Hints:
- By secondary structure, the chain is α+β, with helices and mostly antiparallel strands.
- The chain has two domains: 12-177, no CATH class; 187-268, no CATH class.
- It has twelve helices and twelve strands.
- It has helices at residues 48-57, 62-69, 111-115, 121-124, 154-161, 163-181, 191-202, 204-213, 216-219, 224-232, 234-250, 259-268, and strands at residues 12-13, 23-25, 45-46, 70-75, 80-85, 98-99, 102-103, 118-120, 135-139, 151-153, 220-221, 256-257.
- The protein has a three-stranded antiparallel sheet with strand order 1-9-8. It has a three-stranded antiparallel sheet with strand order 3-5-4. A two-stranded antiparallel sheet has the order 2-10.
- Helix 10 crosses helix 11.
- It is elongated, with a radius of gyration of 20 Å.
- The structure holds iron/sulfur cluster (2 copies).
Amino acid sequence: MTTDDKDDKMARIDPVRYSLDSKFKFKCHKGVKCFTKCCRDINIILTPYDIIRLKKCLSLSSEDFLTIYTEPQLLEKTDLPVVTLKLLDDELKSCPFVRDDGCLVYSDRPTACRYYPVGVAALSHKEGSDGKDFYFFVNEPHCLGFEEDKRWTIAEWRKDQGVDIHDGINAGWTDLIVKKRSFPQNIMLTEKSKKMFFTASYDAEKFRQFIFESSFLTLYIIDDKTLEKIRSDDVALIEFGFRWLNSVLFKDGALKINEEAAAQRIKKE
Ligand code: SF4
Ligand code: SF4
């Protein structure tokens, strides 16, 4: 990775596929002239674990966080409903969390902010991705971090930024997206399926209510240990949600069904 193209005035995605061992030179700190420039006019897709971290950091419910800070979007080539960070209506289209001295939610910042200036193909839906992760660089002319001397491999960068933890928790969700992307684009999801995807991905309280206060537990056989965990642990809940979505959308048998209850439901419907 070089900065030979720094005169290029257009932001661009480096078309080379990088691996975890690929090396690059980069450092971001408060002393760089471009400090916080990358926090304006951006399109940040939020992952389920991002919402869990951010709502907790701001002491909000998922619903309130989604209403105040996000905008709905359909993810390109998948028809899946996702949310992006809602930018301020100021001249620079700033992130709502950017301040002169940095990021207000830094320790809980979203996955995409942690990765930057690296991108991961599994979440970006690059043409030609076969479902295996590869990495690329976002070369924006304003970003002077590439001129600093600190050297990394992409694996080291991910660990340093805590992205490995985010990716590990979101793995089941990324898998759903990659699976849906591999389907022919004319296979559309029903509105009900999209709603299920959205709730299980982003609204932990509503999804928990759905599990414990509907007929969910008569239809699915869930062991007591799992039930106890998802009752109070948001991370366990979203990971369970990814398994459930796989089971409902892709019939992968990830969850055990009570056949008798399922037959009764079909008869009723
Ligand atoms: S969340 Fe923080 S790091 Fe990410 S764009 Fe906003 S201010 Fe910048
Ligand atoms: S533009 Fe690059 S170097 Fe500047 S603050 Fe953002 S990430 Fe850091």
